[in-house]
Amino acid sequence: MFLKGFQDKFKVKSGLRYLKEEMEKPSHAVAREKGVTSVGCIVDVDNFPKADAFYELIEEFSLRPNAIKIIGYKREYDKNSPYAIQMFSDKDLGWKGHIENGYVLEFLGREYDMLISYYEEDNLLMKLLSVKTQARLKVGLAPQDEKVNDLILNTPLKDFKLFKSELKKYLKVLNEI
Fold first, then answer.
1. How far apart are CA 57 and CA 167, in angstroms?
2. d(CA 100, CA 85)
3. What is the pTM of this model?
């Protein structure tokens, strides 16, 4: 038990070091045309349990039904319990910032036109996933780090309707929709 806690502490330390290195590097340019056709969403399910609300963006932005990929973070979850979306947790942190979860690897395997990081908490795993995901435009909420996101919206986490309207407004300004 003692060794497990010691090992977890070192995994977090190596993850933080990896995150710091990645945030100092210039972001990778994703060669996709302007316009939003695919969206990736990282959602803090502990604080926003209605993660499937992001499927409303399909109608809002006239996207294909499979254009949105949502992955949820939960501090602790039972892998045998059914969830509406794919999940990852603190248990999935590996060495050197790797997230050892099949759903995360599948999520990272795609390129997105827009990544929505829908969390307010400064959480290592969600930040790692936000940094590792390849997207042309990264959108987040106010208390997040400016190095992670291109566009930061100052809306409360619980008010998804306001977030959706603000996002649409700024995407129109940026000629993305």
1. 10
2. 17
3. 0.91
Distant-in-sequence, close-in-space partners of 155: CB < 8 Å, separation ≥ 6: 141, 142, 162, 163, 166
Query: DSSP assignment, residue 26?
Result: P
Neighbours of 54 (CB within 10 A): 23
User: Could you tell me which residues come within 8 angstroms of residue 50 by beta carbon, excluding any fewer than 6 positions away?
Assistant: 160
**For residues 157 and 43, what is the distance between their CA atoms, to the nearest angstrom?**
10
Cβ within 8 Å of residue 174, ≥6 positions away: 137, 151
- pLDDT tens column, 78-130: 776 777 889 999 899 998 888 999 999 999 999 999 999 999 988 999 999 99
d(CA 77, CA 90): 9
DSSP letters, 44-100, are ETTT---GGGGGHHHHHTT--TT-EEEEEE-SS--TTS--SSEEE-GGGB-GGG-B-
Side chain identity, residue 81? S
- Contact between 149 and 139 (Cβ < 8 Å): yes
Which of 91, 92, 96 is CA-nearest to residue 17?
A: 96
Distance CA 168, CA 172 (A): 6
